[in-house]
Each structure stands twice: as structure tokens, then as C-alpha cells.
Amino acid sequence: RAAREAYVHGDLRQRLQKYHGDNVDCAFKGWSESWLNPDFLHWNLECWLSGIQAPMLQIQGREDQYGTVAQLDAIARGSAGPVSTHMLEDCRHAPHAEQTEITLALISTFVDGLAPG
Questions:
Q1: Are 83 and 75 in contact (CB under 8 A)?
Q2: For the stretch 101-111, what's the b/e string if a residue is b when 16 or more beta carbons lie within 10 angstroms of its beta carbon?
Q3: For residue range 56-107, what is the model confidence (pLDDT) as tens digits?
């Protein structure tokens, strides 16, 4: 609700436009209407995690305004495969844009570790 308020009455639309361009209104509306829909309150993917056996890489900014450490912990706990989790300092919701070099290094190391022998 706070994000919708900031979008309608604040500068959030302008800030998001650099990521979403001309699609900013559609992108925000799709996101915000989903999250604010009462039917979405109990939506949860955790029941499917045990079926994921592939290795996973989780990268999140410590100051992510939309994600929490609890979400990453739930994914790691519920997954059947190995999970590598990295919290990036001085980073919010977009590690690929805010900490590009670190993010690319983590991805490279992760992918290299998947390669056979």
C-alpha cells in the first residue's frame, strides 16, 4: 500500500521508469494489484520447493526493500537441492545493477561449480 501511495503521489513512478521504460505503468499495476489482492494473501510457493533438486543460487541485497532474509532461509530450508545464498552489503533490490561486479563473480563461481570435472 505504501508503494502504491508513493507511485501515485510521490516520485516512485519516475524512479521505476529507468528500469521499466514506457511499460512502467503496466508493470507497476500488475505487481501492485497482485500483491494487494485479498486472494493473494495466502499465496505461497514453499510447498513446491522440495521438488527442486537442481542447485540454486540466491543473491539478495541486505537492504532489499521487498525481500527478507526469512524468505531466503525458507527457500534454503525447503529445497531438496543445494542452495548457495549471498547477502550483499550496501545493496537493495537489484544486485545485478547495484553490485554488478560482485553479482557477476558470484554467478560465475556458481556456474563454474556446476561444470563436470
A1: yes
A2: ebbeebeeeee
A3: 999 999 999 889 999 999 999 999 999 999 999 999 999 999 999 999 999 9
From the CB of residue 58, how many other CB atoms can be counted at a distance below 10 Å?
A: 17
- At 84, which helix (H) or strand (E)? strand 83-88
Place of cell 556456474: 111
Residues counted in the chain:
117
CA gap 5, 12 in Å, rounded? 9
**Cα–Cα distance, 42 to 31 (Å, whole number):** 16
User: Distance between CA atoms of 113 and 117, rounded to whole angstroms?
Assistant: 9
pTM, full prediction: 0.77
